[in-house]
Amino acid sequence: MTRNPLEWLSEILLSVTTIPVLAMMVHVTLDVVLKYVINTPIQGTLEITAYYYMVAIVVLPMAFVEMTRQSIAVDLFYQMMPNRMQVVVTAFVLIVSALGYGGLAYISWPDALKSLAKREIVMGTVNIYIWPSRFVMPCALAVAALVCLYHCLRLFISPEAREELTAIHQVDPDTEVH
Known about the structure:
Order of helices and strands: HHHHEEHH
Largest sheet: 2 strands, antiparallel
Shape: elongated
Number of helices: 6
Structural class: mainly alpha
Strand order of the largest sheet: 1-2
Radius of gyration: 21 Å
Distance between the termini: 36 Å
């Protein structure tokens, strides 16, 4: 089965997320070791962690989470609904999610542009340019919104997709819950 561009892009974003995860691990570990061994911490660790690593780690995988439909779900009543109602609820959730992601992307894009225009920095023990990190959120959230719209379109067009998207939250009767 061929992958569509959104599947490919969501997987790339997930893979790219490993870079800030590994960088943060090395950076923070090295900062702690240097701080306690030779009393010389790495300047700007807190700012780089907050403005670069954490933002990327949180938002870059969102498109993949939506593509694989692995977000947190509470299915208390969903499983009791007839199939048609499950389709309606799934469509509603996808549309609300797309609006949420898209709205956040729309709101954060002008902030990223303002940050770029000002060449925004955060001043601590050292000055750190943070304007590049401001573009991660709107771009990643826009992709997540597109993924939700893609699933919603599939839900209405393809019976196979409808079956797949509504069956995601079905509990296997043979599975024992502890």
